[in-house]
Amino acid sequence: MTTTTDELSLEAYASLVEPNDAEVSELVRGQVVREPRPGARHGRIQVQIARWLGNWIVEHAGGEVLAESGFILSEEPPTVRGPDVTVLLGPRREPAVGGWIRGSPDIAVEVLSPSDTSSGIQQKVLDYLEAGGARVWVVDPQADTVTVYRADGSAALLRGTDTLRDEALLPGFALPLSQLFE
């Protein structure tokens, strides 16, 4: 993971040209943070989650699912995060600066990559929740687990034969982890 030293505004970050396709970036407290592009297993899990969530959205007509989309979580200091998958419940939100959506998604899904650190992931979780997100799902492909963080500060670790559910936000949604990590 690499970080720039000059603090950037949202507008300056929006005008940046990525130096290469091997990295993805986020703006974290005015600093550009670059990480290696994730591998194939990461992508498969990301697509599975998006498919299950997308099917739920179609059946319940209540929002949209996005992948790799930017969210302006803070303007001061400027922070733009791009979760692997997101759920937006309710009416469509219109893009702002850089084509990003203001505010946190209702559910942000982060699929861990080898370059992720524990403190880095915890900061992402806090950023989403402090910006108004209701849930953050952290998916660990190495441990075959999902940790669900809630805005009230509680968390739940799911593994093995558990099923990912959230009756409060996604009534009727059920994703067996055995199918996610097959």
Task: Give your account of this protein's structure.
With 182 residues, the chain is of the alpha+beta class. The chain has a single domain, classed as tt1808, chain A (Alpha-Beta Complex), CATH 3.90.1570. 24% of the residues lie in helices and 37% in strands. The chain has four helices and 14 strands. It has helices at residues 10-14, 40-60, 118-130, 177-180; strands spanning 2-3, 23-28, 31-36, 63-67, 71-75, 78-81, 85-89, 101-102, 107-111, 135-140, 145-150, 155-159, 163-166, 170-176. It has a six-stranded mixed β-sheet with strand order 4-7-9-10-11-12, sandwiched between helices. Strands 1-3-2 form a three-stranded antiparallel β-sheet, with no helix packed on it. The longest helix is centred in the first third of the chain and has 21 residues, at 40-60. The protein is globular and about 45 Å long.
